[in-house]
Amino acid sequence: MVANNHDLAKKLAVDLGDDLVSARLLVPVDQDFPLLGGKTLRVSAGVEMAFRDAKPVVILKGVSIMGVPIPNAWLGGLKNIDLINEFGDKKGFWSGFAEGVENIRVEEGQLKIKLKK
């Protein structure tokens, strides 16, 4: 997706480490926006992704804007919470995601997802 969209490729960088997916995104702010109008914000996020106890684990580790961490309260209390464990019992995205994944592993520079048949 990123490789085929040259505009997005200039704005998005994804790093893959052991059980961690980190992304950095440049977000242009509309000229009419108060205080930040015309500027470009750097947004970073980290997500732990692994497979434990026969199920996938997805944990939001943090989000920052211009290097300033966003408070957990502003993230809806989702920081350091296993999203699949928290929301996977309800019908929806996380339930469907967990049911379709047989294994997931993030290594230095590689994301490996094995889907169920």
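(the above was protein one; protein two follows)
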Amino acid sequence: MVTIGTFDGVHLGHQVILKRLVQSAGEIGGESVVVTFYPHPRQVLSHDSCIKFITTQEEKIRLLESLGIDNLIIIKFTKEFANIPSESFIKDILVKNIEPSVLIIGYDHHFGKGRDGDFEMLNELGKECHFTVEKIQEQDVENVAVSSTKIRNYLACGDIRKANKLLGYYYSYSGKVVHGQEVGHKLGYPTANLEVADEFKLIEKPGVYATLAEIDGKPYHAMTYIGSRPTLQDNRPQSIETHVINYEKNLYDKEIKIRFVDFVRDDKKFDNFDALKHQIDIDEQTITNILNKLS
């Protein structure tokens, strides 16, 4: 049993395909195989240098493994690979190396040079190469079609709730806690400054978020700020700062994971530190109320 795709986000639509793959393999005593690509084709073919993704390669692998996939094949995507005709990809790579009995694909799956390979072509090739093709229909959540593009757009505009609904889990990223200017200490809200290593990881719209911070495998309530700290006027690039509520241990150099639950407010410039401190007090209470409802 085989499926093919880029699977950015491994969202609810992908999960339906992958669960069906695992189920089908189990029914016939076979193995489930996922074929994906790295780098992402858009990184190789697109001229957009600002392209960002929902999941890093490591995150994608962990999500796929969590769904019970038996085998993961990662094909190095190059411009030369992109020029392989769709029929050659199926016959010379997929059939020759994997010999699938069933190929499960999404409703809009296209592949090969010029993306001219589709469900109809696969059906014809299946008759010749002795495999069947199963197409999974479009998945909707509250009348919204699930897609990686929609999720990326929701994240970019701060609509974390809608993004999470289409993902089927809280959007997150991990990073190392690095030293900052310790302004949070002066305000009574010490923050962990997060350094996200993957330059292609999508960072949401600037603002304040209700989050869960995973530290040493344990979740804690937290408030996370994304922005350029306009009140400080220090002209620094965008930072990601998390205050872990009621947590007093040292976090420097630790690797922590932040899960985003809800968007609270936009980033803004305050007249002075007192006004900023007052707003953070309000933010903490708002976020505590949001997170308490999760229990």
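Reviewer note on protein two: Residues 207 and 266 are 4 Å apart (CA to CA).
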